[in-house]
Design a protein that fits this description.
The protein is of the alpha+beta class and 94 residues long. It has one domain (2-87): 2-Layer Sandwich (Alpha-Beta Plaits), CATH 3.30.70. Helix content is 31%, strand content 32%. The chain contains 3 helices and 4 strands, in the order βαββαβα. The protein has helices spanning 15-23, 49-60, 80-87, and strands spanning 2-10, 28-33, 40-46, 66-73. It has a 4-stranded antiparallel beta sheet, covered by helices on one side. The longest helix has 12 residues, at 49-60.
Amino acid sequence: MIHAFVLIDATPGRLADLAVELAETDGVSEVYSVSGKADIVAVVRVRRHEDLADIVTRHIAGLDGIVSTSTLIAFQAYRRSDLDAIWDVGASDD
């Protein structure tokens, strides 16, 4: 599974509507309005790079109010429980 984070710059008047439209887009699993360098972050989960390219270039970038996008592809996921398990080696609750 490919996980990607699409950072989206949008026209201010379209932020709320865009968030809803993005959340309804196939392949987009989560949408966040954020502060900082981007206005919205969309989390995309797909099986193939071709699917990611299609979602970002045709479905996301084509929405009215999108100014620009920047896509980050995740190499590896780290969960808190996984990180805790790494440091728990040899530890005992006795």
